Amino acid sequence: MAGKCDVRARLLQGNESCAEAALLAGVRFFAGYPITPSSEIAEILSARLPQLGGKFIQMEDEIASMAAVIGASLAGMKAMTATSGPGFSLKQENLGFASFTEVPCVIVNVQRTGPSTGLPTSPGQGDLMQARWGTHGDHPVVALYPSSVAETFDLTVKAVNIAETLRVPVILLMDEVVAHMRERVIVPCADEIEIAWRPRPTVAPSDYLPYDAGPDGVPAMADFGTGYRWHVTGLYHDITGFPTSAPAKVDHLVRRLEGKIANHRRDITFTWDEHMDDAKVAVVACGIVARSARRAVRLARGKGIAAGVFQPKTIWPFPYEQIAEIAARVDRIIVPEMNMGQLIGEVQRAACGKCEVIGHFRVDGEPITPEEILARLEEV
Amino acid sequence: MAKSIDEYLRTQFMPHIWCPGCGHGIVLNALLRAVARLDLPKDQVCVVSGIGCASRAPGYLDFNTLHTTHGRAIAFATGIKLANPDLHVIVVTGDGDGAAIGGNHLIHAARRNMGVTTVMFNNSIYGMTNGQYSPLTPSGMFAATAPYGNVERNFDMCELVRASGANYVARATVAQARQLSTYIERAIENPGFAFVEAVGSCPTYFGRRNKLGSSLQMLETLKKNSVTAAAAAKLDPAELRGKIIIGEFYRGDAPGYIELYDGVIERAKEAAGK
Fold it and tell me: With B227 labelled, which of A26, A196, B83, B203 sits at a CA distance of 20 to 30 A?
């Protein structure tokens, strides 16, 4: 967009919001493969990226698109891809590679009802655990989960920034409902938002140790072609980047990778809550279900029920501390989710028996309504 | 020769992991000599590989190097080339990595005429995993997973890549090291997607299991079985059985993806300005 930034309030579709936010955050490369309900992101970026001198490519499959994203990021571009459940499964191999080699990238997964081809394209929340454990081996990831079109904008910018600053793949989990609905978004100007880049080396190429991290656990990253001729491998590697099988070095790497996320937990944990101060019953929900939960809690308050709602916008790392604190002061937590119980496992882990935790699972391809949640709140 | 190839090696990691008598060293030497003749700045060369014996090569090379996942090197290379078209992006792959698990990426990169040079180290076998048959193991040969002889037909990679749309396609064996190096040099120079199949030998698994003799004998056999494309054109299929056709099969100048996408950027900016 040329000239002054003056268009503020815009009516955007969720996928459109994601695409526009990615551009504002500096994403200049997108590789993808057609899949509903994420396709609009690719379609919009195929038009918008070249306008900004960026690159778009539709690859031959989901695996290749994840690979191309990593390649582009290594060559210095902020890069992203978007997909849905079946494609997300295919991306897992190279997602693990990106996590292990610490290549910044963003993977949008607009979830639909699975498993397999499932219900194309009804909403479902079945990929929470895939986002965390979809690829093999211990590995760090970050996953953010918006509940509205405006939050999609905000969290997409955050996803790009976190990917860059922590050198980690960040997954933006979306619900089909959010991806396809249109809402008002106050679009910020470029100079109004914080835009982060990966840490760059400050030493001469001859002194560059590509995986020698400082106290915060994030090593500096040089772009390919800038004089730092480093080696990137999916094998265990030491601080030089070259393969090693020395047990102490292997152990050091896997612990540093987990540690760099843990070190920054507070900076990357985003949550929202309402009526939690005096709540006796809490609803913990994410994505579109948090919207229904908000409505249900307001209705319950009107009926004199001391209900509150807590929405983790950061799913991974999971906000265990916040949930533990809630569990210590409420009688009961209700966890409504559009799967057979994925979020609830983490809530139970955090609650650690301090309060009752009740699930409400819907898996018929229809969103959970406020009335359903209200009914659970009224069961005492 | 402009430079010694030692300049391009991370010699601190020698000796390499390849077996004595392996043909991969000859292919790598041919590749580095090509880079030396072209006098490419090391910072501007990016070598990308997948998984397997051949794919270990980048670790020994003093370029921007990327050792990726099995079969996916060309897809990674595509992202690199798009993000920085000034880089000379070279993919090093094997017959299992590039023709089996990575076959789809190969044909689509050729179809797009992506500005990447691919050198396939074809040793007719999965060496790193103990010698299972690959899509380039000739019919009738034995392998760890073909104890009664391979009943599958093998690809002709050069025909496949040519038919897919590549701008440059050539094949030589490690018995024609200079010719091989010349082909790799031309491949790097040629715009668009370029493919060189380097037929080598794996004495450890392919040779031993098929009683092909020493590595030197295997090299002699490659030389004896090589037929130039011109000579092959005059032979009938029966006479060509078991032969390796060598030569440049195609050299074209169709616009590559990178150049075509520059046009997309131009049109997009024009549309945005309206």
Answer: B203
Judge whether A117 is closer than 8 Å to chain B, CB to CB: no
Residues A164 and A146 both lie in one domain: yes
Residue A352: which of A321, A376, A377, A373 has the closest Cα? A321
State the Cα–Cα distance between residues B23 and A349, nearest whole angstrom.
Answer: 55
Question: Å from B59 to nearest chain A CA?
Answer: 7
Contacts of A240 in chain B (CB under 8 A): none
Inter-chain CB proximity A67 and B79 less than 8 Å? yes
B108 touches chain A (CB under 8 A): yes
In this prediction, does ipTM exceed 0.85?
Answer: yes
Same domain, A150 and A253: no
- Cβ distance of B69 and A243 shorter than 8 Å: no
* Tens place of pLDDT per residue across chain A (380 aa): 445 666 689 999 999 999 999 999 999 999 999 999 999 999 999 999 999 999 999 999 999 999 999 999 999 999 999 999 999 999 999 999 999 999 999 999 999 999 999 999 899 999 999 999 999 999 999 999 999 999 999 999 999 999 999 999 999 999 999 999 999 999 999 889 999 999 999 999 999 999 999 999 999 999 999 999 999 999 999 999 999 999 999 999 999 999 999 999 999 999 999 999 999 999 999 999 999 999 999 999 999 999 999 999 999 999 999 999 999 999 999 999 999 999 999 999 999 999 999 999 999 999 999 999 999 999 97
- Residue A2 resides in a domain: no
**B163 contacts: CB under 8 Å, gap ≥ 6:** none
CATH assignment at residue A366: 3.40.50.920
CB contact under 8 A, B261 and A94: no
**Inter-chain contact A231–B68, Cβ cutoff 8 Å?**
no
Q: Measured between CB atoms, which of A29, A71, A235 is closest to B77?
A: A71
Is A197 inside any structural domain? Answer: no
Domain count, chain B: 1
CB A104 within 8 A of CB A164: yes
Residue of A48, A92, A229 to mutate when probing chain B, most B C-beta within 10 A: A229
Taking the complete model, does pTM exceed 0.90, yes or no? yes
Phi (first) and psi of residue B64, to 5 degrees: -75, 115
Quote the domain boundaries for residue A244: 205-266
CATH number assigned to the domain comprising residue B112: 3.40.50.970
